[in-house]
Amino acid sequence: xxxxxxxxxxxxxxxxxxxxxxxxxxxxxxxxxxxxxxxxxxxxxxxxxxxxxxxxxxxxxxxxxxxxxxxxxxxxxxxxxxxxxxxxxxxxxxxxxxxxxxxxxxxxxxxxxxxxxxxxxxxxxxxxxxxxxxxxxxxxxxxxxxxxxxxxxxxxxxxxxxxxxxxxxxxxxxxxxxxxxxxxxxxxxxxxxxxxxxxxxxxxxxxxxxxxxxxxxxxxxxxxxxxxxxxxxxxxxxxxxxxxxxxxxxxxxxxxxxxxxxxxxxxxxxxxxxxxxxxxxxxxxxxxxxxxxxxxxxxxxxxxxxxxxxxxxxxxxxxxxxxxxxxxxxxxxxxxxxxxxxxxxxxxxxxxxxxxxxxxxxxxxxxxxx
Length: 370
Fold this sequence. Notes:
- Strand 2 (308-313) and strand 3 (322-327) form a beta hairpin.
- The chain has 13 helices and 7 strands.
- Mean pLDDT is 85; it is low at 1-11 and 348-370.
- Helix 5 runs antiparallel to helix 6 and helix 7 (127-147) runs antiparallel to helix 8 (152-160).
- The strands form 2 sheets. It has a 5-stranded mixed β-sheet with strand order 1-2-3-4-5, with helices on one face.
- The chain has 2 domains: 14-191; 232-367, no CATH class.
- By secondary structure, the protein is an alpha+beta fold.
- The N and C termini lie far apart (80 Å).
- Residues 345-370 are annotated as: Disordered.
- The chain crosses the membrane at residues 25-44, 50-69, 81-100, 106-123, 130-147.
């Protein structure tokens, strides 16, 4: 019961194109209600009862608000069926109490009110049901004119004039609605293209920043190596520290903050073996959580003078977000929860007794020594 008026792209409908989701649209519908309320009040001359006029206004207003507020494109089927009966119900209610002949042509105001509803049904993609509503409206007018002795031609002539607006909206539905789909598709393609361009620019900027950083860090040592002059122990240590730092930048991007990098470098310079691992469980964490974990790591590293430290960001959906295994004279395991707070701290060898415990950071499991 619906002409092929073109379905709009998923997530969008014709209301987005025409601004029907805006407050202005709701204001216009409110004005529509007020206008036909005034028309009903103005057309009470000779009317036997006023309540059917109020019913007609309520029916038309409810239909108008429904067209603007209902999601989906085309409009839901059950609602379209109900709206197609707007003319039959509203006009029928008014016809029951109108004088014969009418005192004023304006007393036939339900025709215009219902025509507006049918026009926007076409806009919302229910052209067939809009025409069903027009047919029912004309039929009710012809029946009223016939029953009241005015003749079917009178009822047909009075109501047929309202076919024009619905015909124009039908042309809109068959031509503009498919174009609306194209507009949404082009808009979506443009948005995706802009997003892709922004992502590419971000990658290029990050690459350039990394190259600049690498140039600053590595060029002096590379030039020193290229000179052919034997390197002393201090320079060799600097090469080892730089190699470890560059490895960390690839293997543990979650720890690439200046104060963490400096603390790790200082610990390695003191002879501490530091291993950084990142399984990306902290990628979605907010800045406060990251800062708390980084600050705790820096604080722990600053106090360590020997041994081995393994710091790992765990995979997503683990109980803890990060772990720090400190193996010096004792073995300590520090865990951080998803708020960046310390979750568990295991004691030194004396507290653990003669059977000490270590933790494999790559499997996140405790290992008892044999």
